[in-house]
Every structure is written in C-alpha cells, then in structure tokens.
Amino acid sequence: MKKIITLLCICLSLTAFAQSNPKAIVRQQTFGVYTSFESQEAIKFDTSDLVVFMNGYRLTKDELLTLYALDSAVMAKATYLDKYVTSYKRAFEAMEQGLDTTTKFQLDYLTHKQELITPYLNEGKTRAEAEALPSVKYSLRRYYVQQLEKLLLKREVYVFQSDDVLRDYYNDHLSLYQGQSFEISKTKVIFDSQKEKEKSLNTRIDEHVQLRKNDSLIKSL
Length: 221
Description:
mainly alpha, Triger factor/SurA peptide-binding fold, three-stranded antiparallel β-sheet, 3 strands, globular
C-alpha cells in the first residue's frame, strides 16, 4: 500500500511538472539551469570545473570523484572521466531529440529518485536535505545520463535490420568475412554494422556537442 501511495504521489507530481514545463522541469531539477556559450573561447573555468560544455553544463571534480568512489573504480580517473564525458555527450544529444520528455522516462526517473532518497527520509532527513547529498545528487545525474544514453543507442545503433539490409552490408564488406557465407557470418555482420552506426553517431555528436576540458585540473586528479 505504501509503495502504491508513493507511486501515486510521483504520478501527481509528474502531472504538475508537465503542466508547468513538460520539456525542462525534471531536467532542470537534476542538472540545474545553465546558459549556453556562443563559442568555445567564451568558456571560462571555475575552480573545480573539469569539463564545461557549450550548452553551459559544468562537470566538476566533486561530481567525478564522488561517483568514482561510489563505483569503487579500478581504472585511472582520467579514463573514468573520458567514459563519463562520452555518456554526457550522448545524453545531451538525446535531450536534443526530446528523449527525456516522455511520460515514461520521467516516471521511471522519478520512481528511481524516490527509491534512492527513501532511506534518508526514513532517517529523518527532509527531502531537500536528502536530494542535496552529493552521493544522491550525482547518482541521480548519472542515472539520468545513462538512461538517456541507452535510449539513444537503442534508437540509432541497436535497431532492427532486416536480412536484406544485413546482406547489403555483408556484400559491401566481404573482406571482413574471409570467404564465409552470410549465414555463417550473420552474427558478426550485425555486430560490425552496429559498430559502424555507433562510430557514425559518435562523429555526429562530436561535431554537435562541443566542450572544453580543464587539462591542468585533470592532470592533478
């Protein structure tokens, strides 16, 4: 019953959000409101900025180190940062396509958010206090980013391709399959074609989603 009531509250909240600003309110609550730059040269780093995107979003050292610790990551921090930046770039592309404005996406996100803060509410913290905790705030941002990344890849990379389309790819790349028939090579053909789609997507995003890295601060990680 308690879970049902919680979900009902989330649905009512989502309805209120949709009525006020359906395309931005959940996004703004997660990332804040930021102002885009006219050029990369106009970007100025604050003390803790690791990366600043031209849309105005700032990825800080605190965000990176908090998530790095939560993940118990074994890779180098700079490598972790590169992977995270790639996810952000894809997420911003997905935002441009409005993939975070659907009712399903926002309801899934708000449900996850409620589940994340509930233990802190049970400890006596207010909702505002719970949401302000770095482990909560940055985890929510990462969840938002990762879900958008998955949706974008599903839409543009992991799409269904008919055998006719796959055969065309196979015939255009025969050297990759060492004389093996299409039927034997089909799994690899699917994998290779998806990799090509992902490469094309990354190229488009790199051209569209601009940023600057604070190399001196990154070196000190």
